[in-house]
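task queued by scheduler; priority normal; single chain, no ligands, no partner chains; default sampling; output format set to structure tokens
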Amino acid sequence: MITIICVFLLAGIVKGVIGLGLPTIAMGLLTVVMTPASAAGLLILPSLVTNIWQLFTGPTFINLIKRLWGFIAGIFIGTLFSLLPGLTSASSWTETALGIVLIMYGLWGLIAKRLPSSVQSEKWLSPVAGYITGTITAATGVFVIPAVPYLQSLQLNKNDLIQALGLAFTASTIALAIHLSLDSKLAHVDYYLSAVALIPAIAGMYAGQYLRKVISELAFRRCFFIGLIALGIYMTIK
């Protein structure tokens, strides 16, 4: 129990600061002491609740929905009608490839003075980016590619970016749950332990959000891209 509390507290802090990373960090640490199936079961409530909380943290929820509805629709369509192999049959190299992409993107973000903007192409690019994100989600369970680079390219400020990530991850979580339900692949979930894990996850996320408020935009960007690099390294060596 102490291990579960510490793991989700740490994962929540990271998610509160950079807006992502809770499932990856929690899975990486929990699988040291339990089976992947048990670890995945613990993630159900913490992942969903923290994503919803992240989504509603900020004043621009309605505006983001209006702006990103095509992106969200693309996520659902891509997840439910993916052309890639399903989550249980995905090749082992897929997660490694995604990890390498994250590392490259994170390094480029740290070095580049300014990311190229996709605002001018947003109308048609949003559904495409959403669909690709959905297909990769259905195949690997990973929500970040190309959702994170695309949302970053919209030149959102740090709070809007965190809220947009919450919107994307909430949509991806719901879409993936529907996909797995339709395929009858949902494993048994220990909702009691998952609810217990939710408490330190929320506490950690609250602490991480406070840290995000007191750091500068430049420091946030550095934390954001360093966090992506760390996640990519984990996915690659795994």
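post-processing summary
- Residues 206 and 216 are 18 Å apart (CA to CA).
- The longest helix spans residues 158-182.
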